[in-house]
Amino acid sequence: MSALSVQGLAFTYTSGGDELFDGLSHEFAPGKITAVTGPSGRGKSTLLYVLGLMLTPSRGEVRIQGEAVSSAPDAARSGIRAAMLGFVFQDAALDPSRSVLDSVMEPSLYAGRTRRDSLERARQLLDELGVGARADHRPGQISGGQAQRVAVARALMNNPAVILADEPTGNLDPSNAEGVIDILSKAAGSQQRTVVIATHDPYVIRRSDEVLSL
């Protein structure tokens, strides 16, 4: 059973508005990177927000571990996001007023773990991703490539089965883009996570195992 799938999925932003996804049915393979591609306006980022249970489809279902969850109550969806899903955004989306370490720990604290346990894992992840020396810095004091590595560390904090990444290389130079995709590829391959990346970057598409074109 795949960790993440959709059945008959469609979405509209307004009643009677243009419909996205055309009743999409798809299983996202565990242990692989799936690149979501397509022209602007086809809903690549919107699909990630639907998969991440932050938007509700107008019809169809998102399934996690085989269970239909997209119409679950808000509290249940929040719990699923905390336990099962990790997010990486194009601009890293780190709080400029907080340290890198605090940003990485945030999902773990939200999930109810102690600060002590969260601190240990956050430092371990930052070290593994090569930014441990920047743990006490704020986002404005690190490079774009380092910030995106921090964002990946935050996404991995709760050991999610699924990682959703929205244009994670969009603001990076080729070297940093390669580093971020290497990390996500490892998360998929050796750790058997399901990784879904919305992208228009040819390099990311080449590095992906599967391509879903909208």
Automatic annotation (TrEMBL):
Gene3D superfamilies: P-loop containing nucleotide triphosphate hydrolases. It comes from the Bacteria. Coiled coil: none annotated. Residues 4-214 form the ABC transporter domain. Keywords: ATP-binding, Nucleotide-binding, Transport. One of its GO terms (cellular component) is plasma membrane. GO terms for molecular function: ATP binding; ATP hydrolysis activity; transmembrane transporter activity. SUPFAM superfamilies: P-loop containing nucleoside triphosphate hydrolases (SSF52540). This is ABC transporter ATP-binding protein. The lineage of its organism: Bacteria, Bacillati, Actinomycetota, Actinomycetes, Micrococcales.
